[in-house]
Amino acid sequence: MAVNETLKQLRDxxxxxxxxxxxxxxxxGGDIEKAKxxxxxxxxxxxxxxxxxxxxxxxxxxxxxxxGSVVAAxxxxxxxxxxxxxxxxxxxAYDIAMHVAAMNPQFRTREDVKDAxxxxxxxxxxxxxxxxxxxxxxxxxxxxxxxxxxxxVLLEQSFVKDPTITIKGLxxxxxxxxxxxxxxxxxxxxxxx
Length: 193
Known about the structure:
- By secondary structure, the chain is an alpha+beta fold.
- It is 55% helix and 18% strand.
- The strands form two sheets. Strands 1-2-5 form a three-stranded antiparallel beta sheet. It has a two-stranded antiparallel ribbon with strand order 3-4.
- It is globular and about 60 Å long.
């Protein structure tokens, strides 16, 4: 594949600026998959730098699934109306709403997990780990608890449309793409069953 075609493909797949794509491709020696990894690493650093910026705009998106038996809504915030009115930003909010409908997260971040939830899960895992040798028991319980909570925290879940990235990774990429802080402020999931 020619250099320009590879650059165009990377730009189309990531939505990141041409200059960032070109630098990532150069660093990756022309390997598009390695360039994607480089861009993901950069997006986390960029998101970290913008984490204290004020969120003044956003959009609410809803997704209805399974013949109307499940609906999810997401409030996705950004810094400016310019970004929030863009089709790509609205599509991101819709994709996250779809993810919420499919994966049913209970918490936005680990900080939102209540002590009572942790305690209840830990009791279950302590019973399960009672057959494990005592010197390994604490590590097994900790691992099970970490996995259990991670599966229920929105930002740690693998994105339903691309399991190679988490929702946090998706948001970090959006920060890189839009040049603004992007955050899920709230989500709801309602279902008939």
